[in-house]
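Thread amino acids onto this structure.
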């Protein structure tokens, strides 16, 4: 039986997974959630024998359950292929006594590739199933990595256009270069004078702007989202939690059936929410540790029960986590409270007063954070102990986990979700390892890092600085809507 989806904010309309993927966000502003989180319908031991693709099929069929076997396998086969530089897709590495699940082996060197390699196929299939004939316009707000991964996923995909908004001053030089050199006739990249929250809020408003949506439908366009507010983004991320567990058993780090912890570097709360789904589906997970950087709104929330965005927005060396309004937290609130009225009230409070109160038990999520200096020390420590190099986001998770372990005296085996290649943040990584690299050119840093680390420079960023810049738009944050209208008029 196909599982139905509904809004977190009370709209009672039930829709299928494929409809939720096309729509992205509910008309009432809520996010789509499954009416219940399904349990796995196979023996957990089976994951020990499955390839990434086989596992992806077994997990995704439970959530995206109105796709036929053929449709789903088509999407999976086209997503997890040679775009990744390892057949394992998500290899587990051990270094300095810790376990790292490397999710950065795709085309844009960040974990967003795992979901955004498959999303275009899910979306096109979902559109076809539902008789959507309009051209699909993907609107994406990015804190740095989603934008590029979405552009790579959707570039030249027939029947789609993609527009990406990024905070002009809030992404790393390499991230920016990756985006503004994007090729593909259906791609558009725009810098905004504002931060990620400004971009995400503006984009969410556009999805629920009825008159704009009608106007564009007349012109043959429908909007959808490549952000983790789209359930089609979230579902593929559940897979690698199972895959990590299987690798922990296979390398004899745990016995089958043992519970493990995951520490997840968190921004928009999509990645860790997928971990929560994996646990609810039946994976033996004990603690999910939510690691924040200096923008520690989530840490404060889990510790105190007050979510308060009324604070300074800090630009850090882990820009993909520089977020104060973590969209997917809304889904967790819904699942925990079991109540869309509560969820709606909390979200209304957030919109009006920039804060709300709600207590989440540590049996669901434990909040931790690492300040910039703590993460940098972590990079140096792991490198000196083992020669392994972490990126700045993974380092936030590593340093947070160290603090957690000390505070809770918990010796349960833990997997750190490693979300980006250090090459993507080479300048800060080099500086963390040796202060003499302070102030080096961010592109030169890539070459320097290849001298420090034994892994070779990944092809997608090798020579990136000499590629042609094809996107030069920079706009005010209040002009996003007009920009979109204008762009589609002339497209
Ligand atoms: C997006 C991103 C994160 C945060 O993931 P969320 O799902 O937004 O919590 C962490 N690290 C990197 C490198 C990212 O690109």
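Threaded sequence (491 positions):
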């Amino acid at each position: 039986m196909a599982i139905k989806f509904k809004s977190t904010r009370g709209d009672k309309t039930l829709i299928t997974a494929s409809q939720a993927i096309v729509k992205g966000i509910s008309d009432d502003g809520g996010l789509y959630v499954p009416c219940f989180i399904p349990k796995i319908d196979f023996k957990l031991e089976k994951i020990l024998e499955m390839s990434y693709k086989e596992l992806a099929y077994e997990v995704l069929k439970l959530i995206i359950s109105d796709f036929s076997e053929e449709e789903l396998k088509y999407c999976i086969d086209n997503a997890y292929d040679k775009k990744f530089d390892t057949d394992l897709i998500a290899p587990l590495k051990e270094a300095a006594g810790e376990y790292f699940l490397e999710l950065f082996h795709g085309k844009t060197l960040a974990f967003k590739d795992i979901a955004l390699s498959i999303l275009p196929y899910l979306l096109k299939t979902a559109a076809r199933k539902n008789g959507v004939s309009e051209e699909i316009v993907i609107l994406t707000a990015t804190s740095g990595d989603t934008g590029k991964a979405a552009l790579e996923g959707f570039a030249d995909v027939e029947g789609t256009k993609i527009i990406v908004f990024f905070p002009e001053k809030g992404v790393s030089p390499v991230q920016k270069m990756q985006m503004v050199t994007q090729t593909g006739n259906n791609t558009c990249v725009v810098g905004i004078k504002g931060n990620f929250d400004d971009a995400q809020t503006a984009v969410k408003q556009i999805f629920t702007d009825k008159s704009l949506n009608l106007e564009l439908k007349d012109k043959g366009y429908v909007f959808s989202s490549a952000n983790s507010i789209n359930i089609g983004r979230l579902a593929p991320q559940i897979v690698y939690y199972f895959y990590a567990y299987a690798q922990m058993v296979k390398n004899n780090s745990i016995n089958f059936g043992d519970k493990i912890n995951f520490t997840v570097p968190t921004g928009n709360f999509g990645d860790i929410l997928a971990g929560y789904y994996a646990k609810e589906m039946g994976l033996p997970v004990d603690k999910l540790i939510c690691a924040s950087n200096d923008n520690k709104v989530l840490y404060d929330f889990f510790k105190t029960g007050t979510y308060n965005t009324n604070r300074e927005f800090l630009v850090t060396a882990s820009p993909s986590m520089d977020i104060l309004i973590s969209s997917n937290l809304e889904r967790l609130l819904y699942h925990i409270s079991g109540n869309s009225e509560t969820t709606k009230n909390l979200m209304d409070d957030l919109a009006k007063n920039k804060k709300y109160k709600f207590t989440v038990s540590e049996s669901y999520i434990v909040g931790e954070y690492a300040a910039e200096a703590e993460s940098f020390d972590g990079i140096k420590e792991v490198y000196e102990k083992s020669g392994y190099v972490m990126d700045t986001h993974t380092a936030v998770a590593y340093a947070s986990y160290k603090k957690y372990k000390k505070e809770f005296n918990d010796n349960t085996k833990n997997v750190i979700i490693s979300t980006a290649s250090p090459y993507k943040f080479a300048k800060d990584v080099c500086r963390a390892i040796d202060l003499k690299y302070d102030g080096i050119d961010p592109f030169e840093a890539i070459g320097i890092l290849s001298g420090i680390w034994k892994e070779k420079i990944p092809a997608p960023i090798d020579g990136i600085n000499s590629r042609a810049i094809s996107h030069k738009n920079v706009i005010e944050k209040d002009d996003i809507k007009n920009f979109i209208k204008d762009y589609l008029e002339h497209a």
